Amino acid sequence: EDIFDDWKIHPVIKPVIGAAALGILGLGAIAVAKQSGREMDYPPFFGNSYPFITMLLDPQFYVGKSLALLVLGLIFMAILKSVATSATLGSGGSGGVFAPSLFLGACAGGVLGSVVNSFNLAPHGPAAAYALVGMAAVVAGTTHAPLTAILMLFEITGDYRVILPIMLAAVIATVGAQLINRYSIYTEKLKRRGLRFRQIHDRTILQRLVVDQVPYGEPIMVFPGDAVQDLLDRVQETTANDYVVADTEGRYLGMVTGADIRTALLQPEAIPLLLVGELMREDIPTVHRDETLDIVLEKFAHCDVTSMAVVNAPDDPHVVGLLTRRQVMDYYHEASETAES
Description:
By secondary structure, this protein is mostly helical. It is built from 15 helices and six strands. It folds into two domains: 2-192, Clc chloride channel; 202-340, CBS-domain.
């Protein structure tokens, strides 16, 4: 995909190039097969390749074949399948990665099984069983979904004797793949498109963060006895939208939001007669310095406001700051990106 994206050509031409490359690979494979004395009407790496995969799962396929030719043939097919899939998907063609994962896993497992059996390292493990386990490993590693690979491959065979090797291979492949890249072959595309995809659950991250870690701002405090006209004068001097109403000792009483100020401006003749205490909202909760951000976001969702006053503690209503929803989300994104790096 990166190679085709770098080519500055018309988008319609790219699938044509991919199709031509695929055709050349197929013709080359057929020509090589004819030179070796075999007839090949259809390259096995075309399409979903299920007939070829089924053949690799048959123990009789490995009987009586030269080890060198078998290993080289499977490696060659795996390379051709990888190139064919890359050319198809990278050029914008239609296709998936699930069937190619099965193909590559079966080839890799077949190679390993053939080598192991030739040297009698595991005489009771047929090469076909290695191919089956290889399929589970590659599917689990590419999708980061070991349980899906385990259940799918076990359903194919219905043989409980292979469940333990499949489980072990799937888990090891998933762990190894996640160490190399935290994103699966599917979510990697989402990441490249700029979509945020969290490997760690959002709520888990929010439960680890507290208000005091967020760089909240200084509050602009007004008093209940202040005139609304004086508040409007302060609005013109600052860029703040919300104002904290407190008593003379700095204890929280309520808030005047930007929406409240805009409502008051609809009746300009009443503004000289209004006091801040009459415009103040007492239903807006506060957040304290040690409160976790998951609870803070729940409060924001219930009140539908852009900011809340930060107080020292639940039993100490002295105002120490003003926290906005934007500040919470910015800090959350920063913390989650740090956790995934």
